[in-house]
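Write out a record, focusing on structure:
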Amino acid sequence: MPNFEHSFYDEIYTYNSLNSTNKHAEKLIKQRSAVGNFLILANKQTGGRGRRSNRWFSPAGGLWFSVALYGININSSLSLYAGICAHKVLQETFPELDFKLKWPNDVYCNGKKVGGILTQYLANYKYHIVGIGLNTNLDELEEEITNLATSLKMETEKKIDNAAILTMFSNIFAMNLPELMETGKLDAAYFNQFSLLKNKKITLDTDFDKFSGISKGINKRGAILLEIAPAMVQPFYAGTISEFKKGDS
C-alpha cells in the first residue's frame, strides 16, 4: 500500500520487507527520525514476533503494521483496545464469519487465530508502539500451524482489501482513543460479548505461578477475571494462557 494515507498519522512509512514493523518503529524513535503519531507498514516481515518472542509467520499478502503514539497517557491495555478495534472492523466487514477476542492479544476467526497484537512502551521517549498482524490475503500457512491459524482469504475464498481494513481500523482506533485516555476504561462489555475464553476453564501462567479456574471475562482496566474457587474471583493484569477448554458454567 505505497499510497496509503490517513489523517491520524503525522507520518506514514511503507516498506516491501522489514524484519519487524515494531522493531523498525523503535529504531526510528530512538534515532529521533520520526515525529508525532506515525505508521509503519510492511508487505512482509522476515522476523515477525508475538508475545514472549514467539515467531509470527508474516509473508507477503498479510496486513503487518505498527502504530506509534507519542505523549499519550494510557492506564489500560493498548493490546486489548487495539484488539477491540480490530474485531469491530472484521465483524462489520465479514458478518458471515465468527470472530472472537482471546485475552490478552489475539483475534480468532471460526475457532482459529487470524491476528495478533504486540505492544511496548518506550518511557524515555514517551512513545507507545502497537504492532498488529492480520492474516488477510494468505493462501496457505506453514504446516505446523494449519490446525491453529487461518486467514481471511481462506475463510471467505475472496481477495481481501487490505487498504480498506487498515482505513477502518485507523478510523475506529483514532475515534475512540480520546475516551480511553480520559477515562482509562476499556469497553469490557464489548470484549466479554465476543470473548473466546469467557466461561471456559483456563490455566494462566504468570511470572510467579500458574493459576487455574473459570474465566469470567475482563474488567474495564483489562485484567482477566479468574474464578479460582467458588465465589472467589481474582483479577490478573498479565500472564499467558497456557491452556483452555470449555467449562461447566
Notes: The CA atoms of residues 187 and 220 lie 6 Å apart. The longest helix spans residues 162-183. Helices lie at 21-30, 78-93, 152-156, 162-183, 188-193. The two ends are 46 Å apart (CA to CA).
